[in-house]
Design goal:
Helix content: under 10%
InterPro entries: DUF2490 (IPR019619)
Keywords: Signal
Number of strands: 13
Radius of gyration: 19 Å
Protein name: DUF2490 domain-containing protein
Distance between the termini: 35 Å
CATH architecture: Beta Barrel
Pfam families: DUF2490
Signal peptide: 1-25
Structural class: mainly beta
CATH superfamily: monomeric porin ompg
CATH topology: Porin
Number of domains: 1
Order of helices and strands: HEEEEEEEEEEEEE
Length: 234
């Protein structure tokens, strides 16, 4: 089945605009935050195994007010003759608090991913991720969380993501808590949603750059984030 390129591009942009307008209408934090990220991945020679991870620095405001430092890495395994990839890894989180309070907390986290991609029509590139997290937060009870992420890319000046290709991208991720009761605290099963939209550039076979706006939605509030990411495969 062929998909009309112009219609598809318009539909993606319109859907993203509606999502952003909907969540922006909710009461939220007027400060724009910023997340600066470096993602890396490599495949071992003549093997189905590899490594992937990321380093992220997050601020409650674009240039200051430390929010979070994330260090994450995992081993990957490509299942032969399928589009599926398995990941098992560890993450370190150092989280700050907004405003003048300089207190910080530490979280150690194990995670397992199931990744797969698909191409629809001539240009639309979909990638999916299911993630399970085991969370060990400082001074809190052990907890788990489940996440699903969908990412869609639309190359603009080439039919595929070749070097020197610009592309539109949009993504969403939903978080669900594994427990409603954690010690003396009770939380809802729904944790949060992230909605992204932006522009990417495939620099070479090894590097690509993405710039985007993200809206984070929880039951209590919504907040906008500037997203700047560099992806490196080697």
């Amino acid at each position: 089945m062929k998909i009309n390129f112009r219609f598809t591009a318009t539909a993606i942009l319109l859907s993203l605009f509606i999502h952003i307008q909907t969540v922006s209408a909710q009461v939220g934090d007027s400060e724009l935050g910023a997340w600066y990220s470096y993602f890396f991945s490599t495949q071992f020679d003549s093997s189905e195994f590899g490594v992937m991870g990321d380093v992220q620095h997050r601020n409650y405001q674009v240039g200051n007010d430390f929010q979070q430092l994330i260090l994450r890495a995992g081993f990957t395994y490509n299942i032969k003759n399928t589009p599926l990839k398995l990941v098992a890894g560890y993450s370190y989180f150092n989280s700050g608090t907004p405003g003048e309070d300089n207190s910080q907390s530490i979280e150690n986290r194990l995670y397992q991913d199931l990744l797969w991609g698909q191409k629809i029509g001539d240009r639309l590139l979909f990638s999916h991720r299911l993630r399970v997290e085991e969370r060990f937060v400082e001074d809190q009870d052990f907890r788990t969380r489940y996440r699903y992420a969908l990412n869609v890319k639309l190359p603009l000046n080439n039919a595929e993501l070749l070097p020197n290709t610009f592309y539109l991208w949009t993504a969403g991720e939903v978080f669900v808590n594994g427990q409603k009761q954690t010690g003396n605290n009770r939380v809802s099963l729904y944790d949060r949603t992230w909605l992204f939209g932006g522009l990417g550039y495939e620099i070479s076979k090894s590097f690509r750059f993405e710039f985007a706006y993200m809206r984070e939605i929880t039951e209590a509030a919504t907040k906008g984030q500037l997203i700047v990411s560099l992806f490196h495969s080697f």
